[in-house]
Amino acid sequence: MIIPLKKSVPATNLHILSQAGFFSCLTSEQLELVAANCSIQEFPGASQIYSLGDSARYFYVLIEGIVRFNLTLGGRQTSAGEILRRGEVFGWAALIESAQRRAATASCITPCVVLALDGNRLIAAMGPKFSSAITPISSLQPVRTVGSKK
Q: pTM, whole model, 2 decimals?
């Protein structure tokens, strides 16, 4: 269940995005466009940000908390071994045009705060070269960015 915080101030979003290395290729104008089209969302501990098979609309930057990925194999859920911490990005399926659904479950180990970015708007803001460059990246691979803690 998503518990929305108060309406995000784009300056706060801009600061969060500028700290994530994933967005370092963006121009100032692109970064401002992306910042204006995202929102901060809060999830309680032991909740799911998304589940296997959910629509893959959002790409996320983890602001606070710890997230774990789980895969479903043969009807059984198993940990994918990925634990995400502050500053990491995840939810790659939202950036891959052919991926309409989530391939894993992202669960909050602790209460979490994320910056949610609409995948289609992010692709449009980053330009056509970005879309073709991101396609080979697995939707299950988080990216450790500058400032993220291991």
A: 0.78
